[in-house]
Design goal:
- The protein is mostly beta strands.
- It folds into 2 domains: 25-116, no CATH class; 119-261, no CATH class.
- 9% of the residues lie in helices and 39% in strands.
- The chain is built from 3 helices and 16 strands.
- It has helices spanning 4-19, 113-116, 258-261; strands at 28-33, 39-41, 44-50, 55-58, 65-66, 69-70, 75-77, 86-90, 93-100, 102-108, 131-148, 155-168, 171-179, 186-190, 204-208, 216-220.
- It has a 6-stranded antiparallel beta sheet, with no helix packed on it. Strands 1-10-9-8 form a 4-stranded antiparallel beta sheet, with no helix packed on it. A 4-stranded antiparallel beta sheet has the order 2-3-4-7, with no helix packed on it.
- The N and C termini lie far apart (41 Å).
- This is DUF1684 domain-containing protein.
- Pfam families: DUF1684.
- InterPro entries: DUF1684 (IPR012467).
Length: 263
C-alpha cells in the first residue's frame, strides 16, 4: 500500500498526467457560444447553431467524425445541462460540444500553449492532519442546487444529496455535497481563508469515497484540486454553493497554478 506520503505522491503524479492529456483541459484553445442563427467560427470547421433542446452541426463538406463515423449530414447533439459534453474529431483537434444553459463549442488541440508550457501543479506539503473524518447527512430527497459560475451570468444546477459535517479545531462546520462525477462518492466545492491568497480564488474541489453505512466519510484535503478554470480561461466552472466557505486556512492540496501566479 505504501506510506501516506507515497500514496499521495502516486495520486499527485496521476493528477499531473491527467492534466497533461493532449486533449484534456489544458488543450483548450477556444470557446464559442452557439446561437439560433447558423454560423461559422474561426477555429471550428462546419456551420453550427442551437435551439431550445439541442446543438446542430452541418459539416459543409469538412472532414469531421463523431463516435468513429464520418459526419456527412446535419448532426444533432442533445445534452444534459451542466452535464458531460461530447466530442467531434476534426483532423488533429477535437471539438467539444457542451450544454451550459445554452450550448457551447470548445476546441482541444494537442498544440495548445497551455499544454506546451505546463510545469506541473504546485501544492502544499502533504500532511496527515488534513485527513478529516466527517459525517454525511443525506437529505430526505436530493435537492437541485443552483450555483454561479466563473463565467458571468451563467448558472449551473447540480443534485445535492446531503451535507457533510465535520469538526476543525473544536468548531463544527458543514459543507453541501454534490454527487460524485463517477457515479459514486461525493464531490464538494469549497473556498477557504487561503482562497485568493495562496490558492485559486473561485473554488477548489475535494472528492470522497461513498459514505460508510453509518454515514462516516473521509475528507482528505491533501487531495483538494483546482477546477479547470484555474488553468484556462476557456472553462465555465461552477462556484461553490452558498455556505461552502470555510473560515480557516486549508493549508493542504493544490496551490494557485504557476500560470496564474506569474505575470
Amino acid at each position: 500500500m505504501g506510506t501516506f506520503i507515497e500514496q499521495w505522491q502516486d495520486w499527485h503524479a496521476n493528477r499531473e498526467r491527467d492534466l497533461a492529456d493532449p486533449y484534456g483541459w489544458l488543450a483548450l484553445v477556444s470557446l464559442d457560444w452557439l446561437t439560433d442563427v447558423p454560423a461559422t467560427y474561426p477555429t471550428v470547421p462546419g456551420v453550427w447553431w442551437q435551439d431550445a433542446e439541442a446543438a446542430y452541426l452541418d459539416p459543409q463538406g469538412a472532414e469531421l467524425s463523431y463516435e468513429g463515423q464520418p459526419i456527412t449530414e446535419v448532426q444533432r447533439f442533445e445534452l444534459v445541462n451542466s452535464g458531460a459534453g461530447t466530442r467531434v474529431s476534426a483532423g488533429d483537434v477535437e471539438v467539444e460540444v457542451a450544454r451550459r444553459s445554452g450550448y457551447l463549442i470548445r476546441v482541444h488541440s494537442p498544440k495548445a500553449p497551455a499544454l506546451r508550457d505546463f510545469r506541473g501543479v504546485p501544492t502544499y506539503q502533504p500532511d496527515p492532519n488534513w485527513v478529516i473524518t466527517g459525517t454525511f447527512e443525506p437529505f430526505a430527497e436530493p435537492r437541485p442546487t443552483t450555483v454561479g459560475a466563473v463565467t458571468p451570468g451563467l448558472n449551473h444546477v447540480y443534485q445535492a444529496p446531503g451535507l457533510v459535517r465535520f469538526e476543525h479545531d473544536g468548531t463544527e462546520h458543514t459543507l453541501t455535497a454534490f454527487n460524485g462525477k463517477t457515479g459514486s462518492g461525493l464531490n464538494i466545492l469549497f473556498t477557504d481563508a487561503t482562497s485568493g491568497v495562496t490558492t485559486y480564488p473561485a473554488n477548489r474541489s475535494v472528492v470522497t469515497a461513498e459514505p460508510a453505512s453509518d454515514g462516516t466519510v473521509t475528507l482528505d484535503f491533501n487531495r483538494a484540486v483546482n477546477l479547470p478554470c484555474a488553468f484556462t480561461d476557456f472553462a465555465t466552472c461552477p462556484l461553490p454553493p452558498e455556505g461552502n466557505h470555510l473560515p480557516f486556512e486549508v493549508t493542504a492540496g493544490e496551490l494557485l497554478p504557476y500560470e496564474r501566479s506569474e505575470p
